[in-house]
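not sure who needs this but someone in the group chat was asking about DUF3991 domain-containing protein from Enterococcus camelliae so here u go. i didnt clean anything up, its just raw.
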Amino acid sequence: MIQYLMAMYDMTKEQARIKVSQDLKGGKIESVQKEQEYLESFSYTEEEQPTTFQAHRYLVKERKLPNRIVKKFIENGLIRESVYQEVIFKWKKNQCVVGYSKQGTVKLTKEQQKRYRTERTYFKYIAPTTEEDTYGGFNYLVGQPKNIYFFESAIDLLSYYTLYESELHSIGDFWLVSYEGLGAGKKNC
């Protein structure tokens, strides 16, 4: 419950602990409502490296994705690398970037974990976007979307595609969609 409050309502561990403690004293837990804020329009302004060396290395060596799959997504412009050596997963709709998420490629130090208020090993960020596009995420479409598959994260999507690539292409007309865009108000985690 504490982790949930921290993630969903941008609370510190102490704030979440106090909230749970207060709610339990009265015998019931009241919901905490946080108003979701959306951008009027999205503009992709992330600074990218001219190469994707670190992003590619992380996805292949650390996440064990096949080199050819990572290259395919890089060549399709869906994966890039930020100037801070983070993997950028671009959310595209009709060939336009409508959002993105980032995954760190270097483990966070204890100081960084404290600063970001996270126990995660790697930096993760979901950029704010418009209300219309917030329910999408990193995605890969082949043909018409007759067969749709949903995933929790971009890495899950890539892993699934790795395992079932030939089956997906033999079926045809598929759309892989990561729903990381639904997370915690699009803040650093």
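also The chain has two domains: 1-32, 45-186. if thats useful
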